[in-house]
Fold these 4 entries.
Entry 1:
Amino acid sequence: MRVVHPEFAPDASLSREEMETLQYDVAETATFRDEFDFDPESVRTGSSDDDQRELPTGKSDTGEKPIVVGVDQAFVGEKAVSAIVAARDGEVIERTHAVVETEIPYIPGLLSFREGTAILRAFEELSVEPDLAIVDGSGRIHYREAGIATHIGVMLDLPAIGVAKNLLCGKLREPIQGHLSEGERIPVLANERVSAPDGTVIGYALQSRQYDNPEKRHVNPLYVSPGHRVSAETTADLVWQLCAGYKLPEPTRRADAYADEVKETVGS
DNA sequence: GCGACAG
DNA sequence: ATCTTGTCGC
């Protein structure tokens, strides 16, 4: 697929100040409301039920099901490996990847300038037109509301969601005491460290999976946030639907595995 | 100066 | 993110 907004390219040679200014521009172009055509309820995983009956009409509606892509990165020395796995109705239909030399180190808040180019190059290799992207990292849960999921989503004008294992910034509306139960979600609000008005719901802590006996051992929640063209609430709904009994959503797990596969092919 | 800090 | 064996628990 093609880039729609090349002016937001995550150029690693920019100064820190220029990078931050670019992020404010990206956030201004982004929308954190539901702006997509597919039915959120139609998004599903592949490893779930196999009782997929034909429709009453007998007509196959697979062509109407949204294409969801998972995006993940791996590193080999100074090279960044970006992997994308596309699936429709839970079935993998295409996989692409790109290997790009990293130019800058990891800096909290500027992740897209380290990994963005590799991700975009992998997207350019994609021949199918995705309806939604699940990106590892934050979206709106970011100092300037422009995490990597937002940056990628805006450049491609593609509905995108950010899925992170740790909270970059913002504050939970209610503190987690001990642990959450599977399926629970707590709003993540903007605080003084976020450019959004204080109290704005910028994402959710989502307990995608939990052990039977959390008292002895528990799983940490996922921190999900809108990247582009998706609301915080729908973001949590979609990620929850994509988690087939695992902590990470299916698209992410597949991209993760593919990135490891490619990684073994590349030398440092 | 002291914390906070996606991947 | 990455370096890595065993090990705890369901």
Note: DSSP finds five helices and nine strands in chain A.
Entry 2:
Amino acid sequence: MAESTAANGPEADDGRPDLAAMMVPLGRALMAAELPVLRAHGLSMWAYAVLLALGEEPTRSQSALAQAIGADKTRIIGVLDGLQDRGLIERRPDPRDRRVHLLLLTPEGRRLRDAARNGIRRWEDRLLARLADDDREAFLRGLRTLSALPEEEIADPGPAAPPR
Amino acid sequence: MAESTAANGPEADDGRPDLAAMMVPLGRALMAAELPVLRAHGLSMWAYAVLLALGEEPTRSQSALAQAIGADKTRIIGVLDGLQDRGLIERRPDPRDRRVHLLLLTPEGRRLRDAARNGIRRWEDRLLARLADDDREAFLRGLRTLSALPEEEIADPGPAAPPR
DNA sequence: ACATATAGTAAGCGACTGCATATCATCCAT
DNA sequence: ATGGATGATATGCAGTCGCTTACTATATGT
């Protein structure tokens, strides 16, 4: 069955490049573009990811946080240290289990997160303005849907056809 | 102006996470999911990227190819060596400038590329089936549009409103 | 109380990447 | 013909990442 398309030209099928082939470089470019904004607020990419994740839900345990932002649990320790030293987050031992740390944003941290996020949001809006008005919302919906999928479902997304 | 949103809850604004914050992990997951498919064809990610890039337009000079797929020019040499040894691509000195190499897929390479691409395409279709029917096309259009933008325009996407 | 398990921390390893340098062949302008 | 650019190549360095191991403090089940 591969042969039918194999016989076609280079722009066979719908000419759509690989999803990952578009997504990965685009992600890289987005990250590169955001970096200066973050640097202006003294944030690294990981630090920003932490602030975003904490803002969305005050997190119990660092491992959970690490998992949530797709980082290694041992690698965010330094990041958390830095944020804590700057008074942007609080590490508070959970009274019910003194092994785990409750992580929460300080008002300061919330302010910085919002400032950085607004800076990035303004840039994103200009970027998204490049999309056709009709596509923009659907694009964002699609992106959110896919990025919310658990990893296993991406690896093996079940049967092919939702009643088309 | 940051304060207006700073006062809101965690899901303030439109609750949209950062673009890069969605795109980068998603890209990683996509890549991870594609890897087994590629491995089954004996291809690395870079090798596959090369095959795709060559398929789309026979490329003059390796630097150009490297740039096209966002790789380091010195790092794809080994990849090209491997592909050439397996008879998947041809490195032919340009008769008009014998310093540069013309890079082209052999029929074999074309076959392998298509086989791998079809495998990936099948998986992608199942994944994209997770999106609402109305969103799917727009999502792909948006993704293609953005990923086709030159890096500079992503870094600085000009004024907010596109001369619609 | 004792054994087992888990959270956070520290340190190191291997792989990959981007970046820089050096070499050689070839081209181009003078 | 000569000098200065350029493409491909080889090599090495530094930074980052994911992963593993080990250690400490704490919790839980027996």
Note: Chain B touches chain A through 83 residues (CB under 8 Å).
Entry 3:
Amino acid sequence: MNNIAPANGPLQAHSLTNLAQNEIERMILGGQFMPGERINENALANQLGISRGPVREACRSLSAMGLVQLVPNRGVFIRVISEEEAREVYEMRAGIFGYAGMLLAHHIDDTQLAYLKRLVGQMEAAAQANDFDRYYAPNLTFHDFLVSATGNQRLLATYHDLVRQLHLFRSRGLVSGDGMLDSNREHRDIVAALEARNPQRAFKAMAGHVEAGQRRALGGAAKHSLATSRGKSFDHLEPYS
Amino acid sequence: MNNIAPANGPLQAHSLTNLAQNEIERMILGGQFMPGERINENALANQLGISRGPVREACRSLSAMGLVQLVPNRGVFIRVISEEEAREVYEMRAGIFGYAGMLLAHHIDDTQLAYLKRLVGQMEAAAQANDFDRYYAPNLTFHDFLVSATGNQRLLATYHDLVRQLHLFRSRGLVSGDGMLDSNREHRDIVAALEARNPQRAFKAMAGHVEAGQRRALGGAAKHSLATSRGKSFDHLEPYS
DNA sequence: CGACTGAATATTGTTGACAGTTTACGGCAG
DNA sequence: CTGCCGTAAACTGTCAACAATATTCAGTCG
């Protein structure tokens, strides 16, 4: 009997379960399923031309990923992210993103910095033209690169999870190009902090950027945690430079 | 048709799938399954007195949680955490734990501080008696409390995931009571930083504590990332107090 | 007219069987 | 004795049917 670990092949190929999982994920993120809505296993299976087994397995996986919620004997529901929970996600994302900056400040190289600067340049052009469509892609790449450049796969995976959950939250409510110029100014701050190889400043810049994004998306004041209205803002850490 | 979100009942009750999931998880963490070993769906289903369906669904869930790895047409394998990956997990755990401290420093109250101090006292007694069994529980509670007291459920969940993956890594290799006194000295530092309501110092104390634990578990030098041999150590942040 | 009751329906939970793939075994050539 | 090849066994992937539970709706009583 072969009980040895598998070679490091592709984690999962194209099985019906994966097909279903990808499809459901796409539907959720694409707005085909609205938060709170139930997924009808039968209907979906028919629609995909497969049987319920793979669909159920896919839903189990998505549940562990936090995209759907399983309720016994009632079915699977598209996860509802309350504003309160969105705040949690933002808080955590700020921490993850800031920590990524902290790690990155240790070993970022000039090539990577140049790449980031080029992205910032692209975003600046798009922002000044008020062209959100052209802003979107480099913005995504910028954030993604910052986390993936840490080399820590788990950090990246967790970051992606959080981003996906936020997509879930503001599905349909996304105010597109609001504050692109402000946002890109923060991007420049981030690059500057990394170029200075200053971990603490990088943390502050990057965590602060997420918080600013939260404020742009959710609106200013926090409803709970009244002691720290405008977010934690990380100003207590120490002045810039 | 009722498409409204479910009431916030227990996320999942006792279905066979959950039974299987809990059982597998228990077996993995309890050392019944060794990393790299394959789970035989049929055998396990028989052993649990259920059919393969629920077992497969449970495995999908565990895969998304990172406890097992699915290989198409070959089966599910207990996740193998390489030393390299363990380093990743430690790195991330340091960030999460440190960030928890940062958040906690904002709003920790005296009751919570008193509780932490009591736990430290219990651990001190156990450490001086070199009694690891008595050290273990309060130690677990201490760490858990620090993260859960942030009030951020996702942070806590992610932290638990990381801890579980580390259990997976050092299953069987766990050197029990090594360095209890050192460890508890760091605990005191953590409490002191929180009592001072100093977020940065709390971050450093708590992230540093995880790093120290990593050094205690994995041994001193990092094999990669040669520039930062003894870990990042967070000493660049600023001198204590 | 509105709230309750109970059957009918829809949907999820679970099972056993079948198809496709991988793994193990045994014979055979060198 | 060793390595290759073909067949048999084992196992995973998928499906369709059955059981258990929840939901809907019509009818009835107050």
Note: The first strand of chain B starts at residue 38 and ends at 39.
Entry 4:
Amino acid sequence: MDNRPVTERRRTLGALLRLPYEALQREVYGGLAARGFPEIRPAHSAVFRHIGPDGARLTALAERAGMTKQSMAYLVDGLEEAGHLRSAPDPNDGRARIVRLTVRGERVLDALLDLSAEAEARVADRIGKRRAAKLRKALEEWVDAITVASPR
Amino acid sequence: MDNRPVTERRRTLGALLRLPYEALQREVYGGLAARGFPEIRPAHSAVFRHIGPDGARLTALAERAGMTKQSMAYLVDGLEEAGHLRSAPDPNDGRARIVRLTVRGERVLDALLDLSAEAEARVADRIGKRRAAKLRKALEEWVDAITVASPR
DNA sequence: ATCACTAGACAGATTATCTGACGAACTGTC
DNA sequence: GACAGTTCGTCAGATAATCTGTCTAGTGAT
């Protein structure tokens, strides 16, 4: 049995992941807005995370992001309208569209990665370089354990 | 400049927090469904996280959860309909309603905390006890740093 | 040629959030 | 007391981000 007081029991790993994650997200998407991309919302990262330099099919993006084609289409439509993506029919498959980042879209991806690195550096300043390195290492280990168990 | 390859640059702290968090959430809410509470969805945790043994006002819950009164009212309504909460007028303030957990609601909170602790134990099994302890410690430090900076 | 499968679109629903406006109730000051 | 300003919760309406189910067109293997 767990006899610790509720306030302590409530400090779950989930909460300890969620709070920093939300803080990070505020920093990164705030920074993105400040850099001239206020239209990019957190959900859009599902696209930027999984699109490669040669673009990808809608279905491939959806599968990698673990969501339905319809949901991914919704996100892609928004980004295409804002000029971050451009889609063209696949010459090898008449059913498929290939979605690619535009130059503007590549700038967003770059800004996203920059801002993330900056935010991580600030974390290291706050909690110490060693501790931040251990944090990253432990998370990487955990993510690897998850990923082999149920590949994305 | 950051000259690491894109695949490595993409392994941001955000991603390293998000993936475990999502995995954890699946485990916990899956477990909750298995324990007979399939109607509890992740968003509802905003209520369980912030309600105390003596209940709370809607407005207080909303503020603690960092959302609008309207959004919190939506979540509370759902939980009240499902019998996890019961709300009564505040005898000291005619405007206010006090929302309290029912016995069923308390069982949910208990299950939530149990499942979280179990999930954390499984993480320790996977990545090692020492590493898991360091992970928790680093996250606690980070959360504390966030919380003093912008108290919730 | 046909037939099973796949890519993406369309229609419609659900969940979880928001903003703005509002009436009722409380609180402090005159 | 009366009045002004604040706070509590609700209503109406909108938006974001997801889902299921159905459909057409295209592919590919027999």
Note: Residues 40-126 of chain B form a domain with the Arc Repressor Mutant, subunit A fold (CATH 1.10.10.10).
